[in-house]
Design goal:
Length: about 550
């Protein structure tokens, strides 16, 4: 059972209790920012980086382990980074945007090679900074590298398809995708490496220049990669921005020099930032935002599958996934059996430190999250719900560690029905009217994904048809998820703007542009001279192998 005393035994008593391969970084104080191809020393205030992992101090008080610090950049450095990106883009005439695609690919490959050399440090920092299990931290790194290679392949295919000319109504044209300009990339804390890179890499490889601001939690893990960015790309192509998001980012937007905003975070922040841009029609926004994905468990669902998928859907990485199942609608006929089996499975989850083998529930990085989750549970209980696994300590917390809670029966009067908890609390709603889960989705401000569990083809089909027009992915008998990364990752309403996938991200960070000429003999000859003389980076028929 989760008690304070027991929770204390989960945290390491001191560093000697941590296996050698997972030791925390020894005071990593980042004192530089990457601007215009240089690691520029930063003189100013620094943000201490606290791990969600706690250890007792000399007085026995549990304190979050201090990992190091990073610059609290100000507008001054942010503007220097912006100027560097603007100059490197040089109105589309910079070395990077005009560079042939094959060469840009070589730079990205070089970066990936350098990144792989720093894998161990990055994975360890990822684990320590956000409390993601060692296995999942490594998976995040590997998935990111795979994403980069898949992006390279997708770009080759895209570029090769664009290498032909199209003739129509007496006009000859070659259509290619060209960069947008300066892209500001901001990723979330829960997938700090992967989700930052799923926008940063496509933005870069398409010829944009980039400013990237690491998330508030998950900043130091980029430190080992700064040299790789510096050495693999021409100056000014990749620049970093640090500091308080609420101050530096709006100022960057107000300059009107950001051409594309790539943000994976909250819809409130995204909408405030977009409004800061003085020429909002010039801004391309690629956003992945709020979501509270539901699961619908039908009366004839295979209970084992439904429980297993809802369990990992709702509680993988402590429920801190944008795609997590954040509310479960269970038909009343199966509610007792489902809640019993689900609660039993939740109680078997291993609570511990991220380096432990097979660990499921780990400490939470976001400062006020445990108190916020307690507030949600108390509100639900005050309105008639129960914590089904209370006897096992469900919902109890000590410092950053929170035992997962199963809350039932949840209804529309409760905050847990509406708010995106982004943590280890699972609200379950019982329903008899099939309209209830559909109404939930209609009323919800977001519309990313949904999962349906059942075996009756008529019933499932009758839910698929309304739901595909309310969300962007209906999962049958499996949890909600982003992957495989070739699938479109998007959402309706406040869940997303634009689509991300290996292939579509390349389109998101580029625009179709073409060269056209009347199909006359003189023009044919002219175009042939340009092509055969290899005179243009854009107008060519090269094939990239
Ligand atoms: O946090 C949102 C992630 O994109 C989710 O990805 O479904 O693969 O965990 P995932």
């Amino acid at each position: 059972m989760f008690t304070e005393q027991w929770a204390k035994t989960r945290f390491p008593a001191d560093v000697s209790a941590i296996p050698a391969e997972f030791q925390p970084p020894s005071a990593l104080h980042q004192r530089v920012t990457l601007i215009n191809g240089e690691l520029v020393p930063f003189e100013g205030d620094y943000q201490p980086v606290l791990s969600p992992v706690c250890m007792p101090d000399a007085e026995g008080q549990y304190r979050q382990v201090i990992l190091g610090s990073y610059p609290i950049g100000t507008e001054a450095e942010a503007f220097l980074a912006l100027d560097a990106a603007v100059n490197a883009y040089q109105d589309g005439r910079g070395a990077w945007p005009v560079m042939p695609v094959a060469q840009r690919i070589t730079h990205v490959e070089d970066f990936t090679f350098r990144m792989l050399a720093r894998k161990k440090e990055v994975v360890n920092l990822l684990m320590w900074e956000i409390g993601k299990s060692a296995a999942d931290s490594e998976r995040e790194f590997d998935r990111t590298v795979e994403y980069i290679y898949a992006t390279i392949d997708a770009l080759k295919e895209l570029d090769n398809k664009s290498s032909r000319f199209i003739a129509a109504q007496g006009i000859l044209g070659q259509v290619r995708r060209a960069p947008l300009g300066v892209v500001l990339c901001m990723g979330p804390f829960n997938y700090p490496l992967n989700e930052t890179f799923t926008t940063l890499i496509p933005a870069l490889i398409m010829g944009n220049t980039v400013l990237f601001k690491p998330p508030k939690y998950g900043t130091l893990l980029f430190h080992p990669l700064l040299e790789a960015f510096r050495d693999a790309f021409p100056p000014g192509v990749v620049n970093t921005v640090y500091g308080r998001g609420a101050t530096v980012v709006p100022s960057l937007m107000e300059t009107g020099k950001i051409d594309a905003l790539a943000l994976i975070g909250s819809s409130r922040v995204a909408s405030e930032l977009k409004k800061k841009h003085p020429k909002v029609n010039r801004l391309r926004a690629v956003l992945s935002l709020d979501a509270k994905n539901a699961a619908i468990v039908l009366p004839d669902a295979d209970l084992d599958i439904a429980v297993q998928e809802c369990l990992s859907g709702s509680l993988s990485f402590n429920g801190q996934r944008c795609t997590a199942i954040k509310i479960i609608f269970v038909h009343a006929d199966i509610a007792a059996a489902f809640t019993a089996k689900f609660t039993e499975a939740v109680n078997l989850l291993k609570i511990g430190m991220p380096w432990e083998k097979g660990v499921n529930i780990t400490p939470l990085p976001v400062q006020d999250k445990p108190a916020y989750l307690t507030g949600l549970i108390e509100d639900a209980v005050a309105r008639g719900a129960q914590v089904l696994n209370q006897a096992a300590g469900g919902g109890q917390g000590f410092e950053t560690l929170v035992a997962p809670a199963v809350v039932y029966p949840v209804n529309t009067s409760m905050r847990l029905y509406h708010e995106e908890q982004f943590g280890p609390v699972v609200p379950i709603v019982s329903f008899t009217d099939f309209e209830d889960p559909i109404q939930y989705q209609i009323q919800a401000p977001h519309g990313m994904q949904i999962s349906i569990f059942g075996t009756d083809p008529d019933q499932i089909a009758s839910l698929i048809d309304p739901l595909v027009n309310l969300v962007c992915r209906v999962n049958i008998n499996c949890q909600c998820q982003r992957g495989p990364d070739i699938f479109p990752f998007t959402g309706r309403k406040d869940s997303a703007e634009g689509t991300l996938s290996v292939d579509t991200a390349l389109r998101a960070f580029s625009i179709r542009t073409m060269v056209a000429a009347k199909l006359t003999e003189a023009n044919k000859e002219l175009l042939n001279k340009i092509l055969h003389g290899n005179k243009s980076g854009f107008l060519n028929t090269h094939y990239i192998f």
